[in-house]
Amino acid sequence: MKHTDRVALVARQKRSLTQKLVREAVERYFEVLAEEIAQGEQVELYGIGKIQVSREQGHGTLQAIGPGGTRIPRKAGFRLRSRLRLFEAFRQQCHKQQRLSG
């Protein structure tokens, strides 16, 4: 389901909300979430779980693939690590949906 379809669905479910109002609220909510995640904070997604992205110093040497398939060694810089911890109820719901659709 696309973002626009979700907004329309929510607006239909609650007659007092217009699509424009729902879209603005959802987009602002995700903007704030994105800001918090970018700052490295652990953010709770209601009913789903917790997510955190952290920036870490890389170590060792990486092999980049250059023109013609040549390997070019380079020092590892920084990397982003994402952590997602799903709530047990949501995890069970995912398993149930996968069994039904598979």
Task: Please render the helix and strand layout as text.
Blueprint: H1 3-13, H2 19-38, E1 43-45, E2 49-57, E3 61-65, E4 71-75, E5 78-86, H3 88-101
Antiparallel strand pairs: 1-2, 2-5, 3-4
In short:
The chain has 102 residues and is of the alpha+beta class. Helix content is 44%, strand content 30%.
Key descriptive features of the protein:
single chain; 3-stranded antiparallel beta sheet
Description:
The structure is a single chain. The two termini are 19 Å apart. The chain has a domain of 39 residues. The longest helix has 20 residues. With 102 residues, it is α+β, with helices and mostly antiparallel strands. The strands form two sheets. The chain has a three-stranded antiparallel sheet with strand order 1-2-5. A two-stranded antiparallel sheet has the order 3-4. It has three helices and five strands. Helix 1 crosses helix 2.
As residue ranges, the low-confidence spans are none
> What's the Cα radius of gyration?
20 Å
With strands numbered from the N-terminus, the spatial order across the biggest sheet is 1-2-5
Helix content: 40-55%
Mean pLDDT across all residues, rounded? 91
Question: Largest sheet, described in full?
Answer: 3 strands, antiparallel
- Output the structural class: alpha+beta
Number of helices: 3
Shape: elongated
- The H-and-E topology, N to C, reads as HHEEEEEH
Strand content: 25-35%
Distance between the termini: 19 Å
* Topology, number of strands: 5
